Amino acid sequence: MLKSIQLATEVPGSKSRALAAEREAHIPRGVYQVTPVVVAHAEGAIITDVDDNTFIDFAGGIGVMNVGHSNARVVQALKEQLERFTHSCFHVNMYEPYIQLARRLNELTPGDFAKKTLFLNSGAEAVENAVKIARAYTGRPAVICFEHAFHGRSLLTMSLTSKIDPYKRGFGPFAPEIYRVPFPYCYRCPLGLGYPNCAVNCFSLVEQAFVKRVADDTVAAVIIEPVVGEGGFIVTPPEYMKKLRQLCDEKGILLIVDEIQTGFGRTGKLFAIEHYDVVPDLLVTAKSLAGGLPLSGATGRAEVMDAPQIGGLGGTYGGNPLACVAALAVLDVIEEQDLPGRAQQIGDQVKTRFQAMQERYPLIGDVRGLGAMRALELVADQETKTPAKEATGKVVQRCHRHGLILITAGTYGNVIRLLMPLAITDGQLAEGLDILEEALADVSEEMA
Ligand SMILES: Cc1ncc(COP(=O)(O)O)c(C=O)c1O
Q1: Looking at ligand 1, which atom is closest to the CA of residue 152?
Q2: What are phi and psi of 199, to 5 degrees?
Q3: What phi and psi, each to the nearest 5 degrees, are found at residue 284?
Q4: Ligand 1 nearest-atom number relative to CA 262
Q5: Given the CA of residue 294, which atom of ligand 1 is nearest to it?
Q6: Distance separating alpha carbons of residues 76 and 78, to the nearest angstrom
Q7: Integer angstrom CA distances of residue 129 from 36, 118, 314, 399, 422
Q8: Cα(65)–Cα(291) distance, rounded to whole angstroms?
Q9: Are strands 219-224 and 234-235 parallel, antiparallel or unpaired?
Q10: What residues line ligand 1, using a CB cutoff of 6 Å?
Q11: How far is 367 from 235, CA to CA, in rounded Å?
Q12: Is residue 351 over pLDDT 90?
């Protein structure tokens, strides 16, 4: 069978190198660069660079391309909208795609109650707005968030984000009234216990926050990622999520679920929270919502969403018509092609391969994930679990040189995460996993 990866040059090729040099002259170094290649075009799960090298994409532009690059349905919807108009600002003149998309998300998100949706541009902006809305509704200022969380790079969302380097160093002072509690990171249990025998004892750390850190009647919301994304693909245990919902109900606190990375089929359900039998008050989306167009949403209980005064929410570009028609096409594709089902199949295949790799390479400390949101945590020593950050970087760089686009995650920079388009074929998936395994074998040997 013809391989998907075709390398015409060494990676990076001369055209990519020349553009990278120009990039260095004109773009700040703070804008991180994962791979050294420059994209020319992309389709499905394949990216072609300016030197004519083809790569299998296991990153999907950080979880944005669930329906695949250049999805025909999305492209067609965009072309048609482009001919009609590109912007009117929803505040000035309404347009149908915004209204239709809001209606669909209100129907598709969990919760058997009236909902409303607000559209914005980025994930960070949607999280900011969810917090604004929660504060307006409850009349309370505080927000509880978690260790290992990532919610964005704006002042408020950077303050909600956990990891210092590179996200927070030098960027303070941070927003006030944010209280961070330990996350149920079972591989590195904050209490040193083992799941499931622990009976999620670590939930007591949330309860203790109301004794030691913040008065319960000043807390507007708790924000949680059902599967922590940037922090290392850590899956919230089901019992923990239920307890969190219960606690929020008891104390009149809103539960905000950040589905920016987990949403739109990635975990085997349309939204990851559907694995939990828990209904949030507010659900935040972005990334794969609009197939690469900048769009984010905050969906929630109608009475909560209507708490801010008229004119209190919005922005010039939020819910841009091009982005909205792209999102409507994305929702059609997800439904018609059963992408959540496909994510489950992909996840099962990856899990089987990852478990086999774990037996072969002691570098792999943990294999985890939900649906197609799968990761490997690399450690220098299985006993001490010392994070193998350097080895992780080497594995990923070797993959890039051999035609696989791959990204890392984790507070300690030692997690390899998979966010391939769900449009990937079985052949491409297997080929990509082979490259990853070869890289793990090479680096294991080198580090031994
Ligand atoms: C869970 C989560 N929340 C929020 C964000 C921020 O989204 P954006 O980069 O679109 O602002 C991200 C981005 O990676 C994310 O993964």
Answers
A1: 6
A2: 55, 40
A3: -110, 135
A4: 1
A5: 10
A6: 5
A7: 35, 9, 9, 38, 29
A8: 5
A9: unpaired
A10: 62, 122-124, 127, 150-152, 225, 229-230, 258, 260-261, 286
A11: 11
A12: yes
- pLDDT at position 358 is 98
Would you state the structure tokens that stand for residue 24, as one six-digit string?
């260095």
Q: Specify the pLDDT at position 448.
A: 80
Structure tokens at 269: 């359900």
Q: What is the pLDDT of residues 384-394, one digit of tens each?
A: 999 999 999 99
Beta bridge mates, 408: 416
The arithmetic mean of pLDDT across residues 291-316, rounded, is 98
Residue range 117-138, pLDDT digits in tens? 999 999 999 999 999 999 999 9
Residue reference for tokens 């990635």? 266
Strand 254-258 to 364-370 pairing: unpaired
Decide: 191 and 198 in contact? Cβ < 8 Å.
Answer: yes
Per the listing, tokens 């350097």 go with: 390
Q: What is the mean pLDDT of residues 199-223?
A: 97
Given a cut of 90, whether residue 325 has pLDDT beyond it is yes
- Hey, which of 158, 228, 261, 370 would you mutate to test ligand 1's pocket, going by the most ligand atoms within 8 Å of its Cβ? 261
Q: How far is the CA of 287 from the centre of ligand 1 (A)?
A: 8
pLDDT in tens, 36-76: 999 999 999 999 999 999 999 999 999 999 999 999 999 99
Arithmetic mean of pLDDT, 413-421: 98
Do the strands 404-405 and 54-57 form a parallel or antiparallel pair, or are they unpaired? parallel
1 pLDDT more than 80: no
Would you state the pLDDT for residue 447?
86
User: What values do phi and psi take at 406, rounded to 5?
Assistant: -145, 145
β-strand pairing of 296-301 with 227-228:
unpaired
What separation in Å is there between the alpha carbon of 124 and the centre of ligand 1? 6
For residues 386-419, one letter each, b for 16 or more C-beta atoms within 10 angstroms of the residue's C-beta and e for the rest, the string is: ebbbebbebbbbbbbebbbbbbbbbbbbbbbbbb
